[in-house]
């Protein structure tokens, strides 16, 4: 499964909902060797994809990721180890230090300071 195939799957479910079988066929036609179960699992792991029964569709990504919102609330201008930030997240939020660092690297208001400390810019 290549990033290009994933992008095509996302484009398809943004246009209209599709079944797992349809999306698996699309992935295969683009050269993926993944099984139908693997394609469905991938789609279920993507934050913008929702599913009910065997129908997959994409949701509006206008809202910010709740994990990023929580991270912005617990981070200040002083770098804090990502492992300590995991413990400061709201109850029910589960993350690893690595995930928090990835989110911080992708967000314009956050930065990662070696070794694995996060702060606001």
Summarize this, please?
The protein has helices at 3-15, 20-29, 36-45, 66-74, 82-88, 97-106, and strands spanning 18-19, 49-52, 55-58, 80-81, 110-113, 117-120. The protein is α+β, with helices and mostly antiparallel strands and 121 residues long. Helix 2 packs across helix 3 and helix 5 packs across helix 6.
Question: Which properties best describe this structure?
Answer:
single chain, 121 residues, alpha+beta, Arc Repressor Mutant, subunit A, 2 domains, three-stranded antiparallel β-sheet, elongated
What does this structure look like?
This protein is α+β, with helices and mostly antiparallel strands. It folds into 2 domains: 3-58; 66-120, Arc Repressor Mutant, subunit A, CATH 1.10.10. The chain contains 6 helices and 6 strands. The chain has helices spanning 3-15, 20-29, 36-45, 66-74, 82-88, 97-106, and strands at residues 18-19, 49-52, 55-58, 80-81, 110-113, 117-120. The strands form 2 sheets. Strands 1-3-2 form a 3-stranded antiparallel beta sheet. The N and C termini lie far apart (35 Å). The mean pLDDT is 89.
Strand residue percentage: 15-25%
* Oligomerization category of the chains in this entry: single chain
SSE sequence, one letter per element: HEHHEEHEHHEE
Q: Name the helicity range.
A: 40-55%
Poorly predicted tracts of residues: none
**How many helices in DSSP terms?**
6
Overall pLDDT confidence: 89
Tell me the structural class: alpha+beta
- Tell me the major beta sheet: 3 strands, antiparallel
The structural domain count equals: 2
Question: Could you outline the blueprint of secondary structure elements for this entry?
Answer:
Blueprint: H1 3-15, E1 18-19, H2 20-29, H3 36-45, E2 49-52, E3 55-58, H4 66-74, E4 80-81, H5 82-88, H6 97-106, E5 110-113, E6 117-120
Antiparallel strand pairs: 1-3, 2-3, 4-6, 5-6
Helix pairs in contact: 2-3, 5-6
């Amino acid at each position: 499964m290549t990033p290009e195939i994933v992008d095509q799957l996302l484009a398809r479910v943004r246009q209209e909902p599709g079944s797992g079988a349809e999306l698996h066929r699309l992935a295969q036609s683009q050269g993926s060797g993944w099984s139908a179960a693997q394609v469905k699992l991938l789609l279920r792991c993507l934050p913008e994809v929702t599913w009910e029964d065997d129908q997959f569709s994409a949701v509006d990504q206008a809202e910010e990721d709740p994990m990023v919102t929580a991270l912005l609330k617990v981070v200040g201008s002083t770098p804090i180890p990502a492992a300590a930030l995991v413990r400061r997240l709201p109850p029910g939020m589960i993350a690893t230090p690595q995930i928090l660092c990835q989110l911080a690297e992708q967000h314009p208001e956050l930065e990662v300071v070696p070794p694995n400390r996060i702060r606001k810019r």
